[in-house]
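[Solved] Which block belongs to which protein?

Original post:
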Amino acid sequence: FATVLRASPEGSIRDFSSGLLTVLYLGFLPAVGLQLRCGPRSPNEVGAWLLLAVILITKASDIGAYFVGSAIGRHKLTPSVSPAKSVEGSIGGLLMSGIAALGFGHWAAGVSQSSPPSDWSSWFGDVVTKLGYPNWMLFTAQTFGFGVALSIAAQFGDLLESCFKRDAGIKDTGNI
């Protein structure tokens, strides 16, 4: 509306795009979190645990990338966008997210059932079967894959935010 009233077409695509991006970035992304927490397919407290899992696994990606990148990072991932990020750090983030997802998934599977008998491996196999997986290997692979997928999304989002900051000439968004 303001672009039309301005009576000048210069910058109209930029203004519209930034307005649309603001709505998506500040509206759509939190709505996804709310859907995870309170969605119709989230009985009882499952939604809260799912949202917590997504947040913790994403943070595990950041932590793994930081520590591995700081320790052994030699090859720059995208120097023009985010010069401090390394390929090694990115791989560390992927692995840490996968491990965090495994830990959270195995913990959640354990607490969702009764206390384990003395034969823990057969009990866990029974739990995994009750969750609908044919065996524990598939459960483990899919859980690890879920963590890696979250890490990929988190790292891409972080790099996209770095692109936005570079384009806007902002060094740090922490104080906004």
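(Second protein starts here: sequence line, then its structure tokens.)
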Amino acid sequence: YCKVTSIEHNDDFLGLYPEVSYLSTKIVELESENQTSPSCRWYDFKPISDKLAASYSILLVDGPPADVGREGLLFHLDHFSSIPIWIVDDVLREKDQRIANIICLELGLIQYRFWNFSLLTKKPIPSKILEKIHSKSLEVLSSQSKEYVQRYYTLEKRGD
């Protein structure tokens, strides 16, 4: 249905799907222009920036993994500012939810939050479509182990 480009730093994920275009790069330290902010790690953007298509319909933020972090994307928002729909995965992690929030504020997007991902859009999503996404999201949530969910969402029982 669409052309998919995947940015990968792990060779194990390159070429898994023949219909996907892969851009291979490594993880590097990014220096912050703001000296009070620590550096962070992200994809080495220089070797892949001119290989990226001029426009995308959707951007799925699902990497790098948590041990690397995704904050480096925020250094490159100008390259992706015209994208109408973003999907930010793993927003059950506070850092990834923060990234989704910043993208929305910086690019003037609307955020729809589901249990483990957020949709960020330039235009409102019709309620019928949101209901379908929500329903499917709850199906996936119900298939997760209790331990996995409690790792991120622990509710303490309160006395009356």
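Accepted answer:
You had them paired correctly. Confirming on the second one: The chain is about 25% helix and 20% strand.
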